[in-house]
Write a structure and sequence with these properties.
With 302 residues, the chain is mainly α. It is built from six helices and no strands. The termini are far apart. Helices cover 91% and strands 0% of the residues.
């Protein structure tokens, strides 16, 4: 007799009249035990659900506490900074008032000396100062514009980085899905083999009800296995698509980094030029102390 043949006394599929009786009899032997076990399992499940709910509440509460603690610390730092600034501002106002009063007093004292200067001398001095101040103001405006543009580029880059990080996560997930596919297939193959073995054993034993249950389980496992096998190309395509998107993000980030580097260099150059103009003004102001011929040369070169 072949190993997979069934004896005549134990047919592969028993008619309902020959199988229902014994199996129902077996079921009737332990109705009370099964009921008690089901009740205990339900009680255990209810308790477990309560524990899970409490764990979720605790985790959520801990997250909220951590968030609120961080926010409290941030607001506390803001309050301390504002309090310090408020105190310093009062002192600064007092110092400003004193400085202005003293300046006005000294200007009034020496006003007669200014009045004694010839009008053309005063005009030439004012012209030189005005030219220097205009040049500094123009350069200062360039510096401010460059600073604003640099800040805008850095904000753009932060947004691009956030997008890149999200797409990097997508690629990691897609990559893991491809890498883990062989193990998933092998595990499902093992399930199919085990279920096939169980089905065969039940068939040999002539247990029709068990055969039916195992056949349903086996069909589900076969369907899952076919799905996994069919997902291979899809998972690879999704992984490749995610990589393409991430490569584009990386390229965009590189371009933005280049823009920032160039704008930073431009900002540094303009800042240096502004500082040079301020130093030039200091020297020019001192040169205004000398005779009108020197003032005229400064006026022409300014």
């Amino acid at each position: 007799m072949e190993a997979n043949s069934y004896p005549n006394s134990q047919p592969k599929y028993d008619p309902p009249s020959s199988t229902e009786g014994p199996q129902e009899s077996d079921a009737q032997q332990q109705p009370e035990g099964q009921s008690k076990q089901t009740g205990l399992q339900q009680l255990l499940q209810d308790l477990q659900n309560q524990l899970n709910g409490l764990a979720d509440d605790i985790n959520q509460g801990q997250t909220e506490v951590a968030t609120n603690t961080a926010r409290q610390k941030q607001l506390s730092n803001y309050a301390k900074n504002l309090e310090r600034a408020s105190t310093e501002l009062v002192t600064a106002h007092e110092s400003s008032e004193q400085a202005l009063v003293e300046a006005d007093r000294e200007l009034a004292v020496v006003q007669y000396l200014i009045d004694e200067l010839e009008s053309d001398v005063r005009e030439r001095i004012e012209e030189v100062r005005s030219g220097l101040d205009s040049e500094i103001a123009a350069k200062d405006s360039e510096v401010e514009t460059a600073a604003n543009e640099l800040s805008a580029l850095e904000l753009d880059r932060a947004a691009l980085q956030s997008t890149y990080d999200q797409h990097k996560t997508n690629l990691d997930l897609a990559h893991d899905a491809v890498v883990q596919l062989p193990a998933a297939i092998n595990n499902t193959v093992a399930s199919v083999k085990q279920l096939t073995k169980e089905l065969k054993a039940a068939g040999v034993a002539g247990q029709g009800r068990k055969v039916f249950v195992w056949s349903l389980e086996l069909e589900s496992a076969k369907s899952a296995l076919n799905d996994l096998i069919g997902e291979e190309s899809t998972r690879i395509e999704e992984r490749d698509a995610a990589k393409t998107v991430l490569d584009g993000d990386r390229s965009t980030l590189d371009e933005k980094d280049t823009e920032i580097t160039e704008k930073q260099a431009d900002f540094d150059r303009l800042t240096s030029e502004l500082e040079s103009l301020r130093e030039k003004r200091k020297t020019a102001v001192k040169e205004l102390f000398v005779a009108s011929t020197k003032q005229s040369s400064i006026a022409h070169t300014a």
